Amino acid sequence: MLFKDFNNLSEDDIKSIVETKLNGKNTLVYAYDGTRRSYLVLNTDLDNKNNQIETKIDYDQYSKIAIQKFLYDTVMMCKHGIKTICYPMWFCTLEDRGPAYLPKFIKYLEGLSELLENPSLFKMYEELGIRVIFYGEYKLLLERGNAPDLLLKFEKIMELTKNNTNHYVLLGTNIEQPSETFINNTISLYKANGNVTPTTDCLIQHYYGVQVDQVSFYLGFDRFSTDGRPILISDNGNEDLYYSISPHMLINKTTVRKVIFDKIFGRPNSNSSEYNLKNDEVESMNQFHLENTNMIMGVGNVNPDGNYWYPDPQVIVPKH
Q1: What is the pTM of this model?
Q2: Contacts for 69 with CB less than 8 Å, ≥ 6 apart
Q3: Do 244 and 262 touch, CB atoms closer than 8 A?
Q4: How confident is the model at residue 168 (pLDDT cuts 50, 70, 90)?
Q5: Where are the alpha helices (DSSP H) in the chain?
């Protein structure tokens, strides 16, 4: 199947394909990112000819729109058959940004109130059967950010969606190192169970509140990293990695369909198991590798106009 044919399918058709092909491994890490860049682009008067005006982010306004796009993205992804979407909202390396960053991030999280304040969005979650679960150290983070009202909203969102079982949206907070979290949770569960060694399934249930498939693909943005990689459900280390060039506030249905298509029809179908190739196919493969000897995916440059990193085009495409 070609992507153009796949892209012409209905959401229900793609949903059926995804649920069949990814059965038992239907968890996506959606490392939603790039919201500040998007806000600047969408809220800057680009028609103003004074190019030296310095732009700034109004975090009160930013908080109202930034994470809302994520909520609608999860609806779109669930309609395409993805069962579990894991968003590592806060991870330990964000601690390096210093104390001034936390108040801004708390304002960003306030945008999740959209689920409580927008009846049409909440109805979508109900109709699709999407359960929202906050996991990790979110209570500690909100305590540090002096946001007790936001904690109440998080708890209300979980309470209102707790009976939904078709899809899960896992919103994570990790303050400590993942290894420390793993060790502490194992010891805690071991003691709680009368000194019985917990299984992986028990640890997953204890940490996430539900049984979750192993992560099988990861959608990030910008630099090729796996920030906030969720513990226990990334143990296999075989998730396919995807990175958008544009911030996630700009991605759409076609973007997601490209990822799904490659995940199901691209990477799994390469002739990499037995290499039953003809001589001319080996010659073609050799030519491709020779032409790309010095090409490294993930190498990029910084654009001085905006000071943002971007990946360099790397691959010299084989001729057919």
Answers
A1: 0.91
A2: 35, 248, 249
A3: no
A4: very high
A5: 3-7, 11-21, 35-42, 59-65, 68-79, 101-109, 114-117, 119-128, 138-144, 148-161, 178-192, 200-208, 253-261, 279-291
